[in-house]
Specification:
The structure holds 2 protein chains of 2 kinds.
Chain A (H helix, E strand, L loop, with lengths): L1 H29 L12 H29 L2 H32 L8 H22 L3 H15 L2 H12 L11 H34 L1
Helix pairs in contact in A: 1-7, 2-3, 2-5, 2-7, 3-4, 3-5, 3-7, 4-5, 4-6
Chain B lengths: L3 H16 L3 H19 L6 H26 L6 H7 L4 H30 L8 H26 L8 H22 L9 H27 L3
Helix pairs in contact in B: 2-3, 2-7, 3-5, 3-6, 3-7, 5-6, 5-8, 6-7, 6-8, 7-8
Classes of the chains: A mainly alpha, B mainly alpha.
Chain lengths: ~210, ~220
Amino acid sequence: MLRTNRSQTNRTLVLLLMALIALVSGAVFLAPRDATMGDAQRIVYVHVAVAWNALAAFVVMAATGAAYLRTRDLKWDAWMHAAAESGWLCCTLTLVSGSIWAHEAWGTWWTWDPRITTVFILWLLYSTCLVLRGHANEEHLRARLSAVVAILGALDVPLVAMATRWFRGMHPVAPEMEPRMLAVLLLSLLSFTLFFAVVVYCRQTILARRITA
Amino acid sequence: MDLRWWWIVQKDLATEYRGWNTWPRMLLLGLLMAFLTSYMAIASSGDNSRTAAGICWLTICLAATISLSHSMQDEQNPCCWESLRLYPISPSTIYAAKLTVNTLSLAALQLVVIPCFAVTTNVTWMSHPLLLVVVACLGNLAINSVGTVAAALTVRWQSSHGLLVLLTLPLLIPVILAAAESTRLLDHAAAHGPWRDWLLLLTAFAVVYLTAGWVLFEYLVED
């Protein structure tokens, strides 16, 4: 029974991943070429989507962390763990894709721009959460630790979102886009969000099963 | 010495490989320190005042972990924590008491460390004593609000060594940056401009961390 569920989950994930790759690559080639940056601008379609998911996953972590502290139900910890893992992945992809874009646009792999700095802080918070989880033997202590990091660390989310406006950085803020480019960006955002939502759901199902086993 | 030393090396490496107890923590702490020091030293590009302010606040933050850890460690003696919980007070009151002690300890440290840094690095922070006190108090409050919660959490952990630093430092990075920038820009303190922005950010973190610590502490000491 367990094996059937797991293979079904894997099949769903593989199908979704293939659909995502097809959708994004199709969308990327449909989008018009940027006049200034050329093909390098296409990184934006992935960068913005993974960055959005990294922020959303931290909000999910904070909300489920608060729910765990109120109810002491470990199912919320499973959600928190799943969101932390996919959020960490999204945050890493954000930094990597952003770095490649920065190299093309600004001629440097890294700069201490307020938004890049705050995203790196977010990545450190994700890493801390995962490292600490790995060291706590007792499951409720592990859940409490993650909840505290998630709730207190959630303060970084508005900082990331508003960094460029508040601290006048170099990072572009909602640049003007051609309607076709905007459509591709929205499509990419939607598909990545859907994909990571399914990943988090599947992962939490596996983790929740481990708790009840 | 024969090849038996290699068996022990192999055993220790295998233990680490199976448990991943030390390396991830070391890597994370290394990354945190690299991030903070490079931001302060390299990003300042020769700005002596920024480097001094950054290292000063990093020093304060790391030194604070000693008093934070100690304040909760004492309660670990047999029955101390249980006795404290039996005392007819709310967990928030325990938090307020611990926070007060930690704040006072750190204030004493700041009284020595900040002038020392100002004198040895030739910066002009001391010519604005009132504003410097405001920045120091806000930084102190933000560090201890999070630190007290983190200390209460990690103290009951079997291998709590180094975990307090690992738990507090990522949460305190924005506080360290805001406090360092507010200290550095004291010469340009004005009702408008970057100094005000950084001070507002520091105030926001102090207030939110204090409120969150107050609320969360109750849930952390429940059992």
